Please model this.
Amino acid sequence: MAGRVLVDQHGNSARNPLVIDTSSASVHASILLESQSADHRAGPRARTQYSLAPTRQQRRRPVRNILTSIALSSIAVEVPHLVRKLHKYISLALLSVWIVQAVTGISSVFHRELDAALLDAGPVPLDEAVLARRIDELRLSRKPARLSSVYASGGDPTQFDVFLHTPDDGLHVLRLDGQGNLLRERPWAIDFVRAGALQSMRLIHESLFLDAGASLFIGLSGLLLATNIVLGMRQAWPGRGQWRRTLTARAPARADMRLLAWHKAVGLWISVPLLIVVSSGVLTAWTGDIESLIGEPAQSVHSSAVGPAYREERQISLQQALAAARDIYPDARLSIVGMPADGQPYFAIRLLQADEMRRVFGKTSVYVDAQGAGILATLDPSSRPAINRFVDAFYAVHTGEAAGLAGRVLGLLCGLGLLVTMLLGLSLWMNRSLRRSVRSKPAG
Model:
């Protein structure tokens, strides 16, 4: 039916009408727009007329807009669904590995102090010269076993672990006090009976029962864990005004909803520090490869620079080597001694200076020729390039030592939180799986 329709653009009056003529085959319209600006109130009202006859591009635009809206809506629906699926199935696939890593990591935070407390050897003052002489005596008296290295125990600053390679029984570790007295000897292996639970759990954390490829597997596992933490943060991130409700785990009375609320709350509380701990753990596992890529100054001591081939009968004493290192760093604490051997005709002595991030195993290094030719090289962490100092920090950040006792406690809480979050997620999955199986059973 032909006619004219006057439509107010606000739907109320005909004051700036949109005039649509339905009597022709094509639609024509005009809009009269009045300027309401205060600057033009005194002047004549300006009227502009626009033609709304649709062009070909305008006719295509609604279709394109509709398709774009459909695509965006589909993405908005699919992305959260995909994030939820990835988070769930990655967690289920690696849950057992991550639980082992969490439990052994928790036990490793203060394992050195616990080990020293369980040993209960009593305080003995450290005499480095006496200790060095005792280690040299062990090296000669335990042949054909080879004494490879000496490590600070980390629990008691006056106790040291001496590593001895025996031809029959593998690697043994001897605990000596500050006067060189033997406190304990046990195998360096995952053996809960002979080696003890603390040592075994630490070795599991560092190797996961793997010999070859342990660092690669642990690094990849940690990388997937870090990815899953980010996916979980994306899934649990509260909307505006929902933070208090989410972080306090407020939820309906239904069991699975309570589990989900606590899973999200604990996960959000620990997510950021846990991501730092896990990421630094991945980088710690791959430190050797990273140092090879960037160039590690500690690896610059070549056999061509250390004189003739190593001959044990001409080896200087450990006491002499330590005295040479002390001439350069008199106030540093002894951390590690790598003993001379074929292919390494020098003492590799590592010390801990007061300004280093680590708690026990410093990176200050002195290389002393085993044949008495003096100091071959030194390495001061504070003078290294920034990229090397960054790599050195991986271990201290992962263990929490970079922030002292507070950092280690935070690392312990992160491990506990990760374990709780995984168990809550597993309970949630089992609860919902049980509900689905009950619903799927036919009635009667």
Q: What stands out?
A: Confidence is low (pLDDT under 50) at residues 1-51.
